[in-house]
Amino acid sequence: MSYQNPVFIPGPTNIPEVIRKACDMPTVDHRSPAFARVFKPAVAGVKAVLGTRDGEVILFPSTGTGGWEAAITNTLSPGDTVLAARFGMFSHRWIDMCQRHGLNVEIIETPWGQGAPVTAIEAALAADSGHRIKAVLATHNETATGVKSDIAGIRKAMDRATHPAMLFVDGVSSIGSMPFEMDGWGVDIAVAGSQKGFMLPAGLAILGLSPKAVAAMDTARLPRTFFDFRDMQKSYAAGGYPYTPAVGLINGLATAVQMLQDEGLANVYARHHRIAEGVRRAIAAWGMRPCAASSDLYSDTVTAVVVPEGFNGTDVVKVAAEKYGMAFGVGLGEVAGKVFRIGHLGSLTDAMMLSGLATAEMCMADLGYPITLGTGVAAAQDYYRKNAGEAAKAAA
Length: 396
Ligand SMILES: *Cc1c(COP(=O)(O)O)cnc(C)c1O
Known about the structure:
Elements (H helix, E strand, L loop, with lengths): L16 H7 L9 H18 L5 E6 L2 H12 L5 E6 L2 H12 L3 E6 L8 H10 L5 E7 L1 E2 L4 E2 L2 H10 L5 E5 L18 E5 L10 E6 L1 H6 L12 H9 L9 H17 L1 H21 L3 E2 L11 E5 L6 H12 L4 E2 L8 E5 L6 H17 L8 H13 L2 H6 L1
Parallel strand pairs: 2-3, 2-4, 4-7, 7-8
Antiparallel strand pairs: 1-9, 5-6, 8-9, 10-11, 11-13, 12-13
Helix pairs in contact: 1-9, 2-9, 5-6, 9-10, 10-13, 11-12, 12-13
The structure holds pyridoxal-5'-phosphate (PLP).
Pyridoxal-5'-phosphate binds next to helix 3.
């Protein structure tokens, strides 16, 4: 790896210089008002990014995986049933965690490359007349396959089935990069991490909680200590923390949410869409295709590129790292070797993306892929030329 090259993995993402500097600060007494001055704007900014007015934000020194654990242990009891679709490594790992916590997971097996199946979710809820299902778990952006799911559609399905289950959404690789409407979609818990759309180092689990999720704590009996929302709420009310907060990361988060809001969230999402679309044009020019089964499922933060028969996608990632000092993502689980992943989220520009596409082409040419150097780059250039400045116009 070269520290000069941007990374094209779907997290951790490139850290803007101003955010790195914001994380680097002297020790602050977290029981002093100085901490509250760092903490309050970070929380307010996260609320805006999550799209919530009614919800509250909790920040743990952890990662997205810790956020999943906090979501389930604060709201559920041993033996409770949750409903989840499995269609990639991250949806799989959340299911695995629930099972290890003694929850009964009703699993809807879904082919990798598809999204959360709204119709099947609705049918499962409609069949659950006794309301055993306490929560529906949905991975908004399946980072293993580059597939986005229709969270608004899942909420509508839950409402049509008049089912009282809570809706928990893993937004680790979507929040801050793709539209997310916590209140609008009726999300009860939204889980994010610091090192993806928020452009920070790993180290914070970022959660949004609805009033319904907060109320579920009254009866939830799964054990929790470090991740107890109540302890956090009590300390927040006093302007502090139940233990030592990651002050530098929280200061970085305040800067990150300010950057996102200065750019304008709509422009941030438009930029991600434009960069992603350039990547997809490049892939089509190579005669290849994304793992996502249809265009409505295409993720604007990561694309899993299906490699031709007889090739191993992991080799592309190896050559990129060893020969060109650039990072792409390997295929995980069922699609290991069958894809390589291009992460295109966080602090990225069209020009940075072109460098990634050019390098991917060199790696594939080195490995004897049937591609012509420059074809993918030209397709992306063409798209970026025609759409550059779109975001700036939208802001005007
Ligand atoms: C990265 C990721 C996670 C795991 O987050 P960590 O911060 O690595 O614990 C969970 N879900 C999705 C969708 C992810 O992309």
